[in-house]
Amino acid sequence: MVACYHGFGNVVALLSRCSFLDVNQQDKDGNTALMLAAQAGHVPLVSLLVNYYAGLDLERRDQRGLTALMKAAIRDRSECVAALLMAGADLTAVDPVRGKTALEWAVLTDSFDTVWRIRQLLRRPQVEQLSQHYQPEWPALAGLVAQAQAQAAPSLLERLQGTLSLPFGQSPQEGGVLDHLVTLTTSLASPFLTTACHTLCPDHPPTLGTRSKSVPELLVQAKPQSYGASMSGPSSLAISAAQDGEEEAGGGLGQAGNR
């Protein structure tokens, strides 16, 4: 808890290897390590906790009945709110005293950045680009090309205005879950971004409000599959090689016997 409160990322990363640590332990006020990191605005620590600590309780409440998502929204920690929502925090949960959700708490406390961030995520709540069924194309491109071809040649005044004005293009997929993941990992954003990697869960891309598995859980899930694949490959090769060797040896013995 002390490491999460002060932002000691190396300590939090090192403690993730301790199997006897209770990550959901609460202090006298009911705060957990996730609550302290979220309300303090330590985005890397929140990402470490939700991604590398199996069994992390996102909906654990303090003595006032507030969750980590609500506490981050009250403090206007917009990026922490986005990380918690991506990890599966419940946006519809309400506190028992005022009966308000995290979004309503953000509106009540004038946390405008958090309100805008939540609304942007709700517009595009799923990273369909990480699904194996995603087609990397821009759906609005055909309509824009047809519209441009249908327009007449611009006048001299329109050309002059276009030369003197600065274009501020809007991304066709601006905001949303994908931009959060890309910005968090690479500090880049592009509407034409697609991936060339195979995820461990291609049929279940990251979705807002859906609890995703932690890295240790994913590694445990993928280890038997990779182990079985590695065992099946060499074993079949060894069997075929052994059979070929036996045939050659048998042929040699037969020839020697005939001789």
Write a concise synopsis of the structure shown.
The protein has 259 residues and is an all-alpha fold. Helix content is 54%, strand content 0%. The protein has two domains: 181 residues, Ankyrin repeat-containing domain (Serine Threonine Protein Phosphatase 5, Tetratricopeptide repeat, Alpha Horseshoe), CATH 1.25.40; 42 residues.
Write the layout of secondary structure elements.
Layout: H1 2-6, H2 9-15, H3 33-40, H4 43-52, H5 68-74, H6 78-87, H7 102-108, H8 112-123, H9 141-150, H10 156-164, H11 177-186, H12 215-258
Helix pairs in contact: 3-4, 3-5, 4-6, 5-6, 5-7, 6-8
Main features:
ANK repeat, Serine Threonine Protein Phosphatase 5, Tetratricopeptide repeat, 259 residues, mainly alpha, Ankyrin_rpt-contain_sf, disordered C terminus, single chain, 54% helix, Ankyrin_rpt, 2 domains, 12 helices, Ankyrin repeat domain 33
Number of E-type strands: 0
Question: Strand-residue fraction?
Answer: under 5%
| Corresponding CATH superfamily of the largest domain | Ankyrin repeat-containing domain
The share of residues in helices is: 40-55%
CATH topology of the largest domain: Serine Threonine Protein Phosphatase 5, Tetratricopeptide repeat
Which series of helices and strands comes N to C?
HHHHHHHHHHHH
- Low-pLDDT residue spans: 168-173, 233-243, 245-259
Q: Can you characterise this structure?
A:
- The protein has 259 residues and is mostly helical.
- The protein has two domains: 2-138 and 172-215, Serine Threonine Protein Phosphatase 5, Tetratricopeptide repeat (Alpha Horseshoe), CATH 1.25.40.20; 218-259.
- Helices cover 54% and strands 0% of the residues.
- It contains twelve helices and no strands.
- It has helices at residues 2-6, 9-15, 33-40, 43-52, 68-74, 78-87, 102-108, 112-123, 141-150, 156-164, 177-186, 215-258.
- The longest helix is centred in the last third of the chain and has 44 residues, at 215-258.
- The chain is globular, with a radius of gyration of 28 Å.
